[in-house]
Design goal:
This protein has helices at residues 3-15, 17-33, 40-63, 69-96, 104-113, 118-126, 129-139, 145-155, 159-182, 189-192, 205-218, 239-251, 257-271, 280-307; strands at 37-38, 224-225. It has one domain (3-307). The protein is mostly helical. It has a two-stranded parallel sheet with strand order 1-2. The longest helix is centred in the first third of the chain and has 28 residues, at 69-96. Helix 2 packs parallel to helix 4 (69-96).
Length: 320
């Protein structure tokens, strides 16, 4: 990739701080004006690690005569991912306190209209312990790609794909947070008449954690947020599903990683209504959200490419 292309990716990287700052600002504003508080140790350590990595990336760019784009984009993007991950967890709890009417019955009605019988599917999975274990593994795959994607894409010099992934991730997170204000829900298990004792082979812990925290946030009894104890409390749209689509797309051009990501992220989507207690409409919305975020990220890069100066300004010497 030419220096000018590196510089274009650097511009996108810098723009990606805008949604990070916006979500961080909303969180700080909410904490300052409400009874919410955040346990400082884990949150502070996470933010400090992210900031330190970002500082190293910027120092490398501005001190080195020939900055290594692999190192810069790897460290910088990991920094953005760490920081935004630390922000969106507490932020999802803060917006849940708006206490908009729960939409579980409406979401369940949409599932029925699509012909999806969640109870039958869940009981079928429970009858096959191996299948339940595979889906549980798939559901847990949401975490590691967030750090693996910056490393793999930077190491393979797919800088444009990396920056588009981060842009799409930020957009998807922001849209998910906003939608969750107006479409709060607890999840499908509460309407299915199924208790954990009925499902010995299905890991319902992710659903139970959210089922505990959502009412507590809504009635005001939960206001102190401990980062390491937060659950996934957003039902619609399913960010597990959106993440799976984004991850599969990010890894797609990388040999070996692309096929592996397709398999694992398909499992993540399949696991969402069972392990996560999501409605099928949540999954559909997550797919639509991810596709829209990817399209928007591609548009941003194309727009910047059209407007870019022909003179590189960061990586390498300026063109003569």
């Amino acid at each position: 990739m030419a220096d000018r292309d590196h510089d274009l990716c650097w511009r996108v990287f810098n723009l990606n701080w805008i949604p990070v700052a916006a979500m961080g600002g909303v969180l700080l504003f909410a904490v300052a004006l409400t009874r919410f508080s955040i346990e400082p140790l884990a949150f502070g350590i996470m933010m400090a690690i992210g900031v330190a990595l970002a500082v190293v990336a910027y120092i490398h760019v501005h001190v080195k005569d020939q900055a290594d784009p692999k190192l810069v984009f790897m460290l910088g993007t990991v920094a953005q991912v760490i920081i935004v991950t630390g922000i969106v967890g507490p932020l999802s709890y803060v917006v849940a306190a708006f206490d908009w009417p729960l939409q579980d019955h409406a979401l369940a009605a949409l599932d029925r209209a699509m012909g999806f019988d969640a109870r039958t599917v869940i009981l079928f999975v429970n009858d096959y312990p191996t299948l339940a274990g595979v889906l549980n593994f798939g559901y847990g795959m949401i975490k590691w790609p967030l750090l693996a994607i910056p490393v793999v894409l930077a190491a393979t010099r797919r800088f444009a794909r990396l920056q588009q992934f981060v842009t799409a991730l930020m957009l998807a997170l922001m849209v998910t947070i906003v939608i969750s204000i107006f479409v709060p829900a607890i999840g499908n298990y509460q309407l299915l008449g199924l208790a954990p004792a009925d499902l010995p082979n299905v890991n319902v812990t992710p659903f139970l954690l959210g089922q505990h925290d959502i009412p507590a946030v809504r009635d005001g009894s939960l206001r102190h947020l401990e980062l390491l104890k937060l659950a996934g409390i957003v039902t619609f749209p399913s960010f597990h599903t959106a993440s799976a689509v984004l991850y599969a797309w990010a890894f797609a051009p990388v040999r070996f990683f692309g096929p592996a990501a397709l398999v694992t992220n398909t499992l993540m989507i399949a696991s969402t209504p069972v392990i996560g207690g999501h409605y099928l409409i949540d999954v559909v919305a997550g797919v639509v959200l991810a596709i829209g975020a990817i399209a928007a990220a591609q548009w941003v890069l194309a727009r910047l490419a059209r407007d870019a100066s022909p003179r590189p300004y960061v990586f390498g010497a300026p063109a003569q």
